[in-house]
Amino acid sequence: MANTKHLRSQELRTHNHQGDALRLGMNWTEEDLSKPQVLVESAWGMGHPGTFHFEPLITEVNNGVFEAGGKPAVFTVSDICDGVVQATSGMSYSLVSRDVIAAMVEIHALGHPHDGMVLISGNDKSVPAHLLAMARCNLPSILLPGGTQLNAPDYVTSDQTWEIGMSVERGQTPRAELESRQQTACPTCGACQFMGSASTGQVMAEAMGLALPGSALTPSFLTKHLRYARATFTRSSCARWICSAPMKSRSYDVVSATSAAVAEHTPRYPTRTTRAAITAKLKKSFVVVLRSLNHVIQR
Known about the structure:
Layout: H1 8-13, H2 18-24, H3 30-33, E1 37-42, H4 54-67, E2 71-76, H5 82-85, H6 94-111, E3 116-121, H7 126-137, E4 141-145, H8 160-169, H9 175-184, H10 197-207, H11 223-234, H12 237-244, H13 254-260, H14 275-298
């Protein structure tokens, strides 16, 4: 095993003796205590199809962390779905939930002595929340996109049921048509099958180099998605930084390092980027996407 004395988790063990006892109480082994500790944080939950299928992804990410010589620690903060809460007072909580998720990931990552993290998300608020958390924490990090749903018959998507429902209320469409579309619009788990904010967030994460190439919008029902999950940590630069870094003084920057070597290629580490620059890069990317979407809508 590589020298791990430079890691946050191991530095804490030199003066916090209760931490080892508490971890052993969770069936950790003495060998686990000396491994790099990797936060595996997901938005798993039962609020919508975009996160409902995350459990096997979490398992495979854990397997990848073990294979790289680390010890995974699973935490969860789920999100809510705009599609579920629209037309209700629940929309008052939607945007707020993004900031709460980002804050909780930061609490989990820095409150406990984690050395890096793998974040799993795929929807409107959880993906930007995880990107914000990556910038705040500045730990070796990578995102696993949650994938997308299978296309429905006639390419009907769940957002189209609003229009169909209003047509039913006007007496222009039989209710059976609405019920038929509701039953088939979401045939599998995953993000909605159109370029809404959920799919856009996944694509942005990959384009920025914060997810493995090709991993965004992977059909969630394919075993390929599980293979991406297993490879997310092992094939990213995170594993090299955490499990192979030879010196404590080696500097790290989340965007520079992760985006430079997310695949199996030889890592390159550009000049250090400040937290302000990371935030500016995220904002600029969101502005470009929003302008593009607005142009499409106007057309």
